[in-house]
Amino acid sequence: MMSGRPPSPKPVAQPVPFVGMQVDTPKANVQRRVYAADECAPEQAAAVPPGQYSRLPQRPTTITEPGLPQPGAQGGNNNRIDPAQIPRPDAQADAGRPWLTRTNLGQVPPPANSGFLVEDNGNASPHYMRLSLNQLIASEDHLKASAVPFGVVVQPLADVPLQEGAVPVVDYGNAGPIRCFRCRAYINPFFSFLDGGRSFQCNLCGMVNPTPSECFCELDQNGYRRDHAERPELCRGVVEFVAPPEYQARPPAPPPIVCLVEASHGAVSAGILQAVLGSLVSILASLPPHTRFALVTFDDTIHFYEAGDGGGVRQLVVADTGEICLPLPPEALLQPLQQGLPALDELMQAVVTICGATKNPNAALGAALEACHLLLEPTGGRLLLFQHTLPSSGPMKLLQRDDVRQYGTDKEKALLLPLDDSWGKLAAKMAAAHTCCSTFHFASGNFVDLASQSMLSRVTGGQLYLYANCVPEHRDEWGTKLQAELARNLMRTNGFEGVMRFRCSKGLRVDEYLMGSAKPGDLDVGVAGIDADSAFGVTFKYDDKLEEAQLACVQCALLYTTPFGERRIRVLTLGFQVTSSMASLFRYADLDALTNILMRQAALATAKQTLHQVREAVVTATVSILYTYRKMCASSTAAGQLILPESLKLLPLYALSLTKNALLRAGTDVRADERSALIAMASRMPVVSSVAFVYPRLFALDALEDDVGAPDASGAPLLPRTLPLSLEKLEPDGAFLLDDSVSLFLWLGRGVTQNFLEAVLQVRSMDGVDCSRLRLYPVDNSLSIRVNRLVNAVRSQRPHLLQSVRVIVAKDPLEGRFLSMLTDDRAQASMSYVEFLCHIHRQIQSKFN
C-alpha cells in the first residue's frame, strides 16, 4: 500500500571547504646501480594485489592560509591559500655531478633548462630524448585512468656540451650494423648475448638471433662481451652508423642551397632585399666550398642569375607565371661556391642595382616557389624563402582575410588554417623531392597569411622566422637578428633525405608523431630536413599488456644525409622501467617532457578546435591527472586539501600559463600571423626552450652577482634565481628581464635610478624617450657588463634564434603584452594562480561527488 507522503529528496553532496594544499614528497632516496643486459631494476614499491596500488612513503608539506583550520578541524569555509607557499620552479640543478644514463634508468632526469652534464653509460641522454613517464604502468587501462600521455620528445641532432663529446661513429662496412631479423631493431646496449656470444636476444621483440661470425666475441663472467667497452654500440645509448650502399636510393651528394628573395617595391623600399643580400655575402663564404648555390628573386616575374665567364652578371627572367619553366638546366643554375665566391659580392651588388629601381608592388610567390621546386627536384636540397608582401598575382595567390571581428568566434579557427590546399600540396611535393624549406617573413603591420605559408616549413622540416617590425628606422635591430638567425640556419648541424622509424618493446607501438603536423604511427616517416634545433614528439599506445618489473625500450633510428654527402644512421635507444604501481608512474613523471607534449597537442589541435576548446582541453587534462593521483595514490588525505604529486607539483602552474600564452590565449592583441608563427615554432620546439616558452623566466637586475653568465662545471651559464610572474614582484624602482624563449623584455619601474639608466641604456631619464629605439649595448662599467652577460647567457640557451631586447616602461605600447606574461596574476578573462588552484580543487571534488 502506497503512502501519501511525498518521497524524501535525495541528499545533495556538499562541497568540501578548501583548507589548503599538500605536495607528496618521497622520503627515501632510491638506491641506484648499473644493471647487466639480462637484469632489470627492482620495483621501487612493494608488490600489491591486482587492481590495487601501493603508496610510496611521503613527507607531506601542508600549505594553508594563516588562520585557516587545519585538516580535520571544524568550521572554516575560506577558499584562500597562502601565495607565498604554493609550488614554484626550483633553482638550477647541481651541475657538478654528471647524470649517468644507465645508472639512473627509470629516474627523472635533471630539469631541462638547468646546467647538467650527462655521461652516456648505456642509455640515451636526456639531451636527446626525454620520456613523459620514466616508469610505465603495465596495463593499458591503468595508463588511461592516469590521464598522463605516454610519449617522448626527441631531438636527434641536438648540440650537447663539449665535455660530453661527439656521437661516436661506427662503420660495419658493406654488411651494415647488426640488426634483429624480426623487428629490425639496431644493435644497442640492451641486447643480451647468449650461448657464449654465438647468439643475441633482441631487447624489443625478444627474438634470439645468431651473431654474425665476423662480429663474434666471447663473454666474460658477468655475461658481457669482452669487447663491450670498446664498442660504442654496446655501451652508448646514442650512436651513429655509416650506412651501407643498400641504404642509398641514389648516390649521396651535398645538398645545394637556393635563396628565393622577394624584390617587389615594398621589399626594396623597406631595405629587406639589401639586408638579406648583405647577410648572405658575409655567411656564404663560411660554408663548405663544394656547396652549390643559386639566387632567385621575384616580383610578378621570376629572376634567375648567371655569372658570366668574363665577369658581369646576366639576369634571366621568366615572365610567364602561368606555366613555370627554368631558363637553364638545374646544373647550370646551381654553381659551387668555390667557383662563384670571387664574383659573389659582384653578384649581390648587381642584384641590388637591377632590382633597386623597381616600382612593381606585386609578388608572384606561388610561381616562384614552383620554379625553385623544379630547380631542386633532381637533387633535393635547401630552399630559403625571404618574403614581405602578401602574394597577389600568379598561382597560389592569397587574400587579405585577417578580420579582428572573427577573433574569439568559431570563425577564428579558419584564420589558422591555409586558405586552400595548394600550399599543402606544394609542401608535400617538396618533401617528396627531399627539399627542406625555411621561410623568413618580414612584416610591418601587414598581413602575410602565415597560416598558409607556414605549411612549407612545417611539412618539409624547415624553420619559420617572423620579423614583426620591419621598418627602415629599426633596421639595425631586425637586420642584426636576421644575420644571426640566417647564419645559424646555414651553419648548424643539418640532415637531409631523412627517413625515421620508431621501434618499441613488445606490447607497445607508436600512436602518433607530433611534428609540423600530426601523423599517424606509420612505420616510416619521411623527414626532408632536420637540424640541431628541431625536436618532435611521439606518443605510444599498447599492443598488449607489458611484463611487470621488466625493462622496456624505445628506439629511434634516423637515416639521413650529412651536409658533406655522407649517408648515416643515428640510433637512439632509451630504456625505462615497467611497474605495477600507479604511485611509481606519478613519482617518476617528467614534467618538462609532459609539458612539451601537452603544448604540441594543443598547438596541433588548433586546426580542428576553437581556441576556447583547446584551452578547456588543457585544463581538463590537468584535472584528470590530479584527480587520478588523489583517488589512487592519496585517498587517505583530508578531503579539503589539493594533493599534488612531487614530480607534477608545477603542473597546474604550467597548465594555467599555457592557456595564457600567446599561442592559445583569447583577445585581439595576438594577430593571426603571430599565432600561426607560434604554432609553427611549438611544433618543432625542444624541451629546453618549451619550459620558458610556457612559463617565462623573470630575473631581477639590481642585484646581479659578479659571476652571472660565467660557465659552471657543465659549461652552462650561471643564472640568478627566477621570480614569480606577478606584478607585486616588480619593485617600482627596479629593473627586470623577462625571457619567454622568443623575446626578451627589459621592464623599468617608474623610480628606476638614473645610475642604472646611464650605465645600461646611456640615457639620463626615460621622459620622452621612444623605448623601441633603445638598444642594449655593452659599456665598460660593472653594471652594464653584468646585465649583458645575463642577456648573452639566456640567448646561449636558444641558439636557433636571436632574442631581441625590448625596453618596457609604463604606458608603453607593449606594456599590455608584457603584463599578459605575468601569468600568476589575474587577467581580464582568466584566473590567477591561486584562483586556478582553487578551481582545480573544485573540479576534482566534483568528480568525487
From TrEMBL:
Keywords of the record, alphabetical order, are:
Protein transport, Transport
The chain positions of domain Sec23/Sec24 beta-sandwich read 495-579
Q: Does the keyword Transport apply?
A: yes
Q: Which GO terms describe its molecular function?
A: SNARE binding; zinc ion binding
Q: Which GO terms describe its biological process?
A: COPII-coated vesicle cargo loading; intracellular protein transport
Residue intervals of the Zinc finger Sec23/Sec24-type domain: 177-214
According to the record, the residues making up region (Disordered) are: 41-93
Q: Which residues form the Sec23/Sec24 trunk domain?
A: 252-489
Query: Where is each Gelsolin-like domain found?
Result: 719-770
Protein name, please? Answer: Uncharacterized protein
Q: Which organism is it from?
A: Phaeocystis antarctica
